[in-house]
Each structure stands twice: as C-alpha cells, then as structure tokens.
Amino acid sequence: MQKHGFSIKIEGVAQDFGAFAALRNVSLEIKPGELVALLGPSGSGKTTLLRVIAGLNAPDRGRVLFDQEDATYLPVQDRKVGMVFQNYALFKHMTVADNIAYGLKVRPRRYRPSKTEITRRVEELLRFVQLEGLGSRFPGQLSGGQRQRVALARALAIEPRVLLLDEPFGALDARVRKDLRRWLREVHQKTGLTTIFVTHDQDEAMELADRVVVLNEGRIEQIGTPEELYDRPASSFVISFVGEAVALPVTVADGHVNFAGRELHIDTHGLPSGAAKVFFRPADITVASKGNGEIEGRVESIRRTPAGVRATIAIEGYDQTLEIDSPIDQAASLGEKIPLSFTKARVFPADVPDFDDIADGI
Amino acid sequence: MINLSVDRQNAWRFRAPSVIPGFGITFGYTLLYLSLIVLFPLATLLWRSSELGFGGLYAVASEPRVAAALRTTFSLSFAAAFIDLIFGLIVAWVLTRYEFPGRRLFDAFVDLPFALPTAVAGISLAALYAPNGWFGAYLAEIGVKVAFTRLGILVALIFIGLPFVVRTVQPIIAELEIELEEASATLGAWRLQTILFVLLPPLVPALLTGFALAFARAIGEYGSVIFIAGNIAYISEIAPLLIVVKLEQYDFAGATAIASIMLAISFIALLVINLIQAWSRKRFGHV
C-alpha cells in the first residue's frame, strides 16, 4: 500500500440543478492524507460536492485541484479516485474477486498488470479488507458489512489518489456501523490516502474525521476539528446541527441579553442589538440553588440515562421546553419549580435559520 | 447454493410453501387448464398425423415445396428474432433510461404490434413496401425489392417480434442502477467497456427470453406475412401458409404432418434456448 496522499483544493465551486442551487461558491482545502467529513442535512450539497471531486458532476463554476494540478475537467476515468457508493454499486454478476480486479482489467493493455499480478493484488486486497477466502462468492451472498468492504477493496485496487465515500455506513445496522467506523480509521491510517466521506450523522463525522466540513443549503457553515465545532460553533446552524442544543428566543440590547424581561448573563461577542437566539447544550445547564437561577422552569418529565437523569423542563409562561442532564442525587421531583443557571451559552442573531427551523420545514 | 440442495430433496414432493390457502384448487386448475387448452389440441394434432406414420411424415417433410417453406419459416424467424434482439435492446434502453417529451407515448407504441390484428399489420406493411408504396418506391430506386420477397417476410416478422424483446428487457434495465455505470467509470473503464462488462451481462437472461418469445411468435405468424410475402412457392412461401393451402385441398393428413414437423422443430429450438437461458441465469443471474 502506498503511503502518499494528494492534497485537494476546491475553489469557488458552484453547481445548480435547474432553479435549485446545490452548491454556492464552496472553497475548501484538504491536506495530503487528511480524513475529512462532509456533514450536513439532506439537500445541503454534501453529496454533490463529493461527486464534483470525483468528477461525476462537472461544476458550473470554480475549480478542483489535485496537488496543484487542475482536475476540474479531467474525465472521471482519468482521475484515479477511489469511490465507494452509498449502495456500494457492486457488479452483482461478478464474483468478489472479479469485482476487485475490474479496475485493473479494464486498463489499456500497456498499463495492465499481468494475470498473475492481478490475482496477487486481489488476494492482497482481500486480506487487507479481511475477506480472505471469499473471493469466489457473489455479492448477493455477502452481508452488508462485507459488501461494503468489497466496495472499498475495489476502490483501493486502482491505487487511487483520493478515497471518496458516500454515506459509507448509511445502510448498515448500528452495531456493524460502530465496528466499521473503527476499521475505516485503521484503513485510513494504513493507506495514508486523503479520504473524504459524506455523512448526515454528526456522531460519525465527529468520531472519525480529522476535520469536519459542515454544509447547509449549498454553503459551508464551518470547517474545523470536532473540538472547534463543539466549543466554538460559528453559526446557529452549526450549534443546532452538531450536538444537542436548545434554543430560547431573546433580545439583545447594548450587549445585554434579555429573556422574558430578565437579564441573562451571557457574553454577546459584540452581537448587534435586536432579536436573537440563545443556545445551550443540555450538559451546560445546571440546577441552581434557590434564588440564584437565571431562569425558572417546571419539571415536566424525568428520564433515566446511563450517567444520571435527563429532565425536560418547561419555561414558565413560554411555550418552550429545554432538556438538562443532571446527576442522580440532584434529581428534582415532577412538577417542581426549579431555578436554573448555565455554565456556557452562545447567542446568535435570530434572523438566520438554524437546523431546527430547516428541519421543521422538511 | 444452499437453496439448491433443499430443492433437490423435495423435488418429488408436493409443496405448498405459502400461508395463502388454496394450493390444491389452484394446482388442479393449472393442470386442467394446461390439459384442455394446450396439451389436448397438441395431442390431437399428433394423433392425426400419426395416421401417416414416420415414413409418411418424412415423405411430407422431404417434399421440395414443404422443405423450402420450413426452411424459409425457421431461418427468417431466427433472423428476425435476432434483429429484434438488437433493436429491442436499444429501444428498451432509451425508453427506460432517458427522459424525453412523449416518452410514455412511444412506450405505448411498442405494444401496437401486440394489439393490431395481424392482417391489418400485413396490409399496411404491404402498402408501404410495395414498389409504388412510400418506402417501396425509394427502395426500388436503389434496386431493393422488399414486398413479395423473403425480405418482406423478414420485415413483417421483425415488426411483430419487437415488443417481446422490449417488454422482457425493460424491467431488468430499470433495475440497473446508474451507480453501476458511475462505479465502472471511476474505476477507469470507458463507455464501451462499461456496456460490455457491466451493463450487458445482467441483461443476458432477459434478452434470451425475449429472443425465444419473438422467435416462437415469428414461427407461427401468418396474417401479417401473407400479404407482404407474395407467397411464391419455393421462394417466399411460409410453412403456416402451406398448411392452409393443404387444408384447402382437403389434404388433412398433409396439413397435420407439416404442423407436427413445425411443432417438433419449435419444441427443440425453444428447449435449446431455454437451456442456454438456464445456464446464463446461473452465470449472470446473481442479481
């Protein structure tokens, strides 16, 4: 296996499908050997971006560069990208071994390895994806996880410059997903390939990727490491899409945040006055001692979680609930009125839709 | 693979592998229906022709006019089915894969040869291809004569066979995901390689079925052919017509003899096609 990754640069890429703008002016730089996740809800343009990199879609504007070389109009066949499709797209009439060998067999005679060399490479790849001895099976005789590994071996067989995966774990059940995630991380480390995968599952993106690109409505909302996305979300969309968050409508006036006629002590980071939304993570809200709470709520339901309890709390006078995580010994009783304070909160302007607004629309 | 061995074990047992009741009555109905509608008439045919004996059958078959008609029917049916195979595949591909205005309309046109009374088809074809017809006039200029020749028979047989190939292949094409082509392309395969190695093999079983159906239909075709064929003995006379001719001469034994010979050849031909198909299903059918 080679130990070299290509860098990928995307410059101002845009693509429209009729009146629908799938990508709007997307720019992105991916370092050699990096493992990057494209994260976003459906319709955010993440798969379109992956297909533009693969060469399956030609962008209307912008450029794609592989190691400084302009690949925007390089035909798919010449791009040498290893693509793993969401439904794997295995050739069902070919054996597993023939599937893996396909990319080598279709090469022009000059570049085609000898028959024995192809057999050797297929064996090597089968070992690499832990499917030794299954080379003569047909894809229909394999489990979902095995099929995915065949698809990966087939993509690796052509010694690709980048590895692209479209929703790699979308069709698998939860347990297999977990195993394959860990395994994909290993594959990435062993091959050293620049790897980009598309997902709508933020856990998957956060667990696997070096950097995550959050996409929404064809635009990049934020690019960052998982830590950066959790700790310094750049927009209301990011905070509501990545990790759990509850939002309360507030107004900002001269750097002060007001909720229901009461001031909340939150740094506005220079947000201009007007309607805004304050976001909390459930873990950042705590039950305060009497009289020290910033907001007050009534306990509506209590649910046990592995670590403690999660309570749903209705804010008095507002049609709004929020969820908090709290240790077991602090548990309040149902219907009780409790004061709440928070350790961390973020304020964003209200006129920018966050993920929940978008999800409600769908 | 495991399923196969199970099948073999139970091959001679009655199985009702369904929660829906009524296996007995539906099985009985199937047998009765097949017997009354298919096997009985065929048995009568065999019984009638057996009056002649094998020697008599052979004598009829080796009559030069009969032999020529049988050769015409089977060779042209095979050629027509083969042409339908190629063009039917293209038509099915275009109708399934591409979006264009009027697609549904064109899709409906495919069934016309099914629905049209064959005589109507024959008359229209004859009118078109006759030396003074719309096509025939131009073809005559370049020296090609279609109507009242074997070429005319071929045209009629291609016409009636096309929907069989299109309709059997269409659903299989619909199942082939676009991603298969894209995967093939990302792996470095060019268009022709993708067609030959990825797209065609899964279609082989359905193509063979379509071919067999078109072939079988062409062998028995009468109405559309006789108008365009000219029916010249030894040249453009088809076997079904010869049967009618014999019947009109009250030569019932001769007519049934030709019918039996056609039945035997058709049976063997379809059996061979079915065997190839069974093999191809095993080879390519892991869909």
Which features does this protein show?
heterodimer; A: 362 residues; alpha+beta; Rossmann fold; 4 domains; six-stranded mixed β-sheet; five-stranded antiparallel β-sheet; 20 strands; B: MetI-like fold; 14 helices; disordered N terminus
Structure in words:
- The complex is a heterodimer of chains A (362) and B (287).
- Chain A is of the alpha+beta class and 362 residues long.
- Chain A folds into 4 domains: 1-80 and 160-232, Rossmann fold, CATH 3.40.50.300; 87-159, no CATH class; 235-281 and 344-362, no CATH class; 282-343, Beta Barrel (OB fold (Dihydrolipoamide Acetyltransferase, E2P)).
- Chain A has 10 helices and 20 strands.
- In chain A, helix 3 crosses helix 4 (115-128), helix 3 (96-105) runs parallel beside helix 5 and helix 4 crosses helix 5 (144-157).
- Chain A is elongated.
- The two termini of chain A are 44 Å apart.
- With 287 residues, chain B is mainly α.
- Chain B is built from 14 helices and no strands.
- Chain B has helices at 2-9, 23-50, 53-61, 64-97, 103-109, 112-115, 118-129, 134-141, 150-175, 178-186, 191-220, 223-229, 239-248, 252-284.
- The longest helix of chain B is centred in the N-terminal third of the chain and has 34 residues, at 64-97.
- The radius of gyration of chain B is 23 Å and the shape is globular.
- The chains are: A alpha+beta (362), B mainly alpha (287).
Low-confidence segments of chain A: none
Mean pLDDT of chain A: 86
- How many angstroms separate the termini of chain B? 14 Å
Helix content class of chain B: over 70%
Put the structure in a nutshell.
The complex is a heterodimer of chains A (362) and B (287). By secondary structure, chain A is α+β, with helices and mostly antiparallel strands.
What secondary-structure arrangement, pairings included, does this model have?
The complex is a heterodimer of chains A (362) and B (287).
Chain A lengths: L7 E10 L2 E11 L4 E5 L6 H9 L6 E6 L2 E2 L5 H4 L1 E4 L11 H10 L9 H14 L15 H14 L4 E5 L7 H18 L2 E6 L2 H7 L2 E6 L2 E6 L1 H6 L4 H6 L4 E8 L2 E4 L2 E3 L9 E7 L4 E3 L7 E10 L4 E7 L5 E6 L10 E6 L3 E4 L5 H7 L1
Parallel strand pairs in A: 3-8, 3-9, 6-7, 7-8
Antiparallel strand pairs in A: 1-2, 1-4, 4-5, 9-10, 11-12, 11-14, 12-13, 14-20, 15-19, 16-17, 16-19, 17-18
Helix pairs in contact in A: 3-4, 3-5, 4-5
Chain B lengths: L1 H8 L13 H28 L2 H9 L2 H34 L5 H7 L2 H4 L2 H12 L4 H8 L8 H26 L2 H9 L4 H30 L2 H7 L9 H10 L3 H33 L3
